[in-house]
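Study this:
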Amino acid sequence: MLSRLAFFALLAFFPIASSAAKEWKFDFGPAPAQDGHVQVLATSTYSKEVGYGFLDASEVSGVDRKTEGSRGSFCTASSPFVFAVDLPEGNYDVKVTFGDPAEAASTAIKAEARRLLLAETPTTAGQIESRTFTLNVRTPAIPGGGEAAIDAREKGTPDWDDKLTLEFNGKRPCIASVEISEAPSAVTLFIAGDSTVTDQPNEPWSGWGMMLPSFLQPGIAVSNQAHSGLALFSFESQKRLQKILATMKKGDYLFIQFGHNDQKDKRPGAGAATTYTADLKRYVEAVRAKEGLPVLVTSMERRLWKGDEFQPSLGAYADAVRQVGQEMNVPVIDLNAMSMVFYKALGPEPSKQAFVHYPANTFPGQDKPLADNTHHNAYGAYELARCIVEGIRAQVPALAPFLREGIGTFDPAKPDAPSSLGIPPSLSQSVEKPAGN
């Protein structure tokens, strides 16, 4: 039986969700909610019965400045806090309003499994800002029947459930409201790939696909369906490609980046020029059959040095991608070449700063050093995402209008300083290495 509080929350919530506009509007803090909004108190804990709330409200507090001319009410916390709302699969425009009428604040926003939307953004006292993002929510179910074969590492993560999850982070995040509306006409940018691309659920691991949304305007949603340990053939055999194709509409994109795990393919005759090339061509044909737009991405290199000489390890696979792109007239973003420029600009030892290289006891439960030359940290993934943005500008000009204004150009020979990264870490951490190498 529903509690009295849950009952009235449902009465307030579902008329909004079922209206013609299909909007979900939430006001945060102790002040009375605006018309058409559901009030979210600091104690509003998520449950399936209510359908929205904080996943852990223990550190959240509500503030009401009682200012004239503005609502002046918000929720804040001294550590990251997460708000979730049940939503069916699809794309949504999400407007977040943040700031404090009386004090300085500093807010970063992520979605689902650490998907970066907004790097840390300071606001002065009285400065109230709003940002709108277009986000994708998905489940394993394949329209028409069946499911993508997600594994134990993915089950229970925010990327594959039936709700939208927002993480509010930063030195002092102050969230005034969240307004959500369906966006069925939004373009979807699907991603198929491996651990170097995926939305890694735990710090300090990161893939460039989880950084890409921060560079995009409203109107396009990233559906990053890459997963650790997969190759072209295993991504397809697990019905992940089928899942993408079943939800793809005309004019959507599929970015395809594989190579690291394809090198380990033990099938008879497997290789870059044989099975890998044939698999790539089949992906391209399948996307075009759905009137989608394939984009090929060459795999970034691992961090391998012999003295001062960089040692490429994925050249044959990058060449195969370039060849397929040329033969089939498919745009190719050459992340392989750009990654080498990036690593060389940092140098043999400093390039560790782009990877998961940390001394023992940097993270809870980490009694041994982490030294991974395949998987990137947030800095490395962010810089590679900047390379992808440059590739979009040069090779996929139809996508360029979806890039946010003011992000500037990027030269991998002149990378950002690691200290300039404004991405505060999430609470979810694990020293377990992702699958793949």
